[in-house]
Amino acid sequence: VTARRSAAAGAATIELMTVTVRVFARLREIVGASEMRRPIGAGWTVRNVWRALAHEYPPLAEFEPSISAAVNAEYARMESPVSDGDEVAFLPPVSGG
Amino acid sequence: VHAPATTRDLVAVTRDRLDVASLAARVSAPGQGAVATFVGLVRDESGGRRVQYLEYEAYEPLAVSALARILDETREHWPAVRAACHHRVGRLEIGDASVVIAAASPHRADAFAACRYVIERVKQIAPIWKHEHFDGGAVWIEGATADPRDEASQALALARARGDRAP
């Protein structure tokens, strides 16, 4: 995880870059929460966020081939970059209708 | 005289009861000779299980934009069609409407086809999930991996809409 220096506080403090992670349906039940803040590193993609989450919650790993992802409420690729403050969502296969 | 409906009125993800008649009225216009409607209902049986009720969950902002995207696609395939789709979320009882679609067109063939296309695409790409509650438990229903840009699934929806035999 990379940190960047807070412009205001100079060298005294560092701020983590974070994203809001949202998960739904079965993924939400595995995680036990619908929304959480997680740190990210420089140059991270959606896949890095997913892998970190799956490391934290190993039962998620088997979902990797079937999930979709969204960044800031728009469909995204696992290769899409993420930035500080983004909302990153992971979606199991859908069943609307 | 018909009040001009905004695109916002044409799609919705809501906890409120759905009303297909008002949706049909919303897409009707003097040049439209046909309105086809579709209503999805909660069934009391699924995979041999006796269903008690369904709980629908959605990623609401993305679901609204996915429905808007589906209407844009529909307009590309059937430029004269005006379509609308509302999806319900929350707890639904047996017989409740979970989704309503209306498609108006100058002639019936395009109205039916567009209506079918919308429901096929809803099932493919709307970020909405069914939690099915039955005697003794509950399961999440998982259908398609949502990928709006996937051309194979778009082609499948189009083939079904046009009544091709194979798919």
- For the terminal residues of chain A, how far apart are their CA atoms? 40 Å
The count of strands of chain B amounts to 9
Secondary-structure content class of chain B: alpha+beta
What is the arithmetic mean of pLDDT of chain A? 91
State the low-pLDDT regions of chain A, or none: none
Rg of Cα set of chain B: 16 Å
* Quaternary structure type: heterodimer
| Cα shape of chain B | globular
Instruction: Please tally the helical runs of chain B, counting DSSP H or I stretches of 4 or more residues.
Output: 5
Number of strands of chain A: 7
C-alpha Rg of chain A (nearest Å):
14 Å
- Strand order in the largest sheet of chain A: 4-3-7-5-6
What would you note in describing this structure?
The complex is a heterodimer of chains A (97) and B (167). Chain A has 97 residues and is of the alpha+beta class. Chain A has helices spanning 25-31, 46-56; strands at residues 3-5, 14-16, 18-23, 35-39, 68-71, 74-76, 87-91. Chain A has a 5-stranded mixed beta sheet with strand order 4-3-7-5-6. A two-stranded antiparallel ribbon of chain A has the order 1-2. Chain B is α+β, with helices and mostly antiparallel strands. Chain B is built from 5 helices and 9 strands, in the order H-E-H-E-E-E-H-E-E-E-H-E-E-H. In chain B, helix 3 runs antiparallel to helix 4 and helix 4 (108-125) runs antiparallel to helix 5 (151-161). The chains are: A alpha+beta (97), B alpha+beta (167). Chains A and B meet through helix 1 of A and strand 4, helix 3, helix 4 and strand 8 of B.
